[in-house]
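OP here, attaching both records as promised.
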Amino acid sequence: MGKVTVGRENSDVINIHFEDHGAGRPVVMIHGYPLDGRSWEKQERVLLRAGYRVITYDRRGFGKSSQPTTGYDYRTFTDDLKAVLDHLELDEVDLVGFSMGTGEVTRYISTYGSERVRRAVLMGALPPFLLQTGDNPEGVDGKVFDAIKEAIVHDRPAAMKEFLDNFYNVDVYRGTRISDQAWQNSFNVAVLASPYAAYACVDAWLTDFRPDLLKFDVPTLLIHGEDDRILPYANTAARLPGLIRDLTFVTIENGPHNIAWTHPEEVNRALLDFLAH
């Protein structure tokens, strides 16, 4: 494990915590809200066994990274990702993002190009543009996000409980694909995250990535759960085939948002097949 300093807030530095394991071609994995880099455990194991070097890191505000009250926007998140790549001197990287992490993958390619990127993976995708506007009628009504922020302000632990229930479709998969203990572990990670970050990240979800997607020039894999309640399939993944040129699209039948945990066999098979070519 290690850390890279990405800035300061008043008297303290802002560090991004990362873990770097294995050898071979590097795969950088960017987690979703409200978890941390260890949420990739079901993918890291198979990637290491397949001979990849696996780098995970905690987004600012989450896990073991610093918890500042600045930088909760995709310009800063992407610069944090670049700082990790620079620090580790990584090239020919496969970038894998889940949920919020798909935003970093998308904005990185748009901002810094694909010179250092071999392939991209978007899992439970946030792009193209989640907010419903006049020129984006396929988005989600802004009142939904206002209600999420109000719930976090009112009772953050209770808001995280409801969020994670929908994150895993607990009413469907409890006791089969998501145990009470695994759910509790996610809850523990979520409530230990920065309260400020938990609130501020909601606005970042409403970033318009449509111009960024036009700059994709690497093979891209999209994996999305058909029954995703956090980033609904019709509002997100179903729109991406017309926006990304070289796209492989895998739909996980009946899959919830965190398919990496609930459907690892299907996800890992698609991931390994894509990265191997």
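Record two, same layout:
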Amino acid sequence: MGMFTKDIKSMEDLLMHGLQDMYYAEQQIIKSLPKMIEKATNRDLVAGLKGHLEETNKQVERLQNVFEKLGKESGGTHCPAIDGIIKEADEIAGEIEDKAVLDAALVAAAQAVEHYEICRYGTLIAWAEELGHDDIVRFLTTNLNEEKAANTKLNTVALRKGVNRKASSAA
């Protein structure tokens, strides 16, 4: 089912597509976070990414609960947006030799992912509420709140924990 194709005939179809999109996205994030953790050198960044990997696994479980509540099989649909964000992050990270600058790039890449997730979860919550699926809203809201908190932590790492400052004084 592609976004805005003939497969989407109703708001229910649109909600289901969005849920499948996020299920796929979360799976891709689980695959990419260990690579980011391996490349990161700032200890606060490493700790934050590790913590978010654990959260992301729980978010997938919550999405599985959402599918179950809706009486649907859990599964993802290809999400070119998250693939593009991850691909760009991989390409940029592969080009940066200075570790301080790499850490700043990793923070930016992680925030791009968080912003995408915040946008999508917010939309899914609005659609679920409109369709009367109050039983899934709390799962989606918990995921949204975790994504917002992860973004705030990344801001803290970049600004208060010195990642940006250290990167700005690199070579």
